[in-house]
Specification:
It contains two helices and five strands; from the N terminus they run ααβββββ. The protein is an alpha+beta fold and 114 residues long. The protein has one domain (26-107). The N and C termini lie far apart (71 Å).
Length: 114
């Protein structure tokens, strides 16, 4: 009986640890979604934006952390209605609250807002 209790406690501990890991895991794809939301403020017509597919975004993760470096492109309309390609680079950090906080490093090779 004692062996069953120890085995049951062990299983519950492993299951709880797995649940914790899943709840606190980091996702490059979620980081990319946060970058897309942040990039909208730099676009003239954000509703026209077509982002490159996730599998073509260049990503780099810092080992054992929730810090990502992403670079890619999107297409959106400019002030004249023409579709233009915009490149971006960003770092993304997952905060303790679980939100992804993107920092846009450059847009078309320039600092954002310049």
């Amino acid at each position: 009986m004692r062996q069953w209790i120890i085995a049951a406690v062990g299983c519950v501990t492993l299951a709880g640890g797995g649940w914790y890991f899943l709840q606190n895991s980091c996702s490059e794809k979620s980081a990319y979604e946060a970058v897309k939301m942040e990039m909208a403020q730099y676009l003239t017509a954000p509703s026209t934006a077509i982002y490159q597919p996730w599998d073509r975004v260049a990503t780099n993760a810092v080992p054992n952390s929730c810090v990502f470096s992403l670079s890619g492109y999107l297409e959106s309309q400019n002030g004249f209605g023409a579709m233009v390609k915009t490149t971006f680079r960003a770092h993304v950090l997952k905060s303790q609250s679980g939100d992804y906080a993107p920092l846009i490093l450059d847009v078309n090779g320039r600092l954002p807002g310049i």
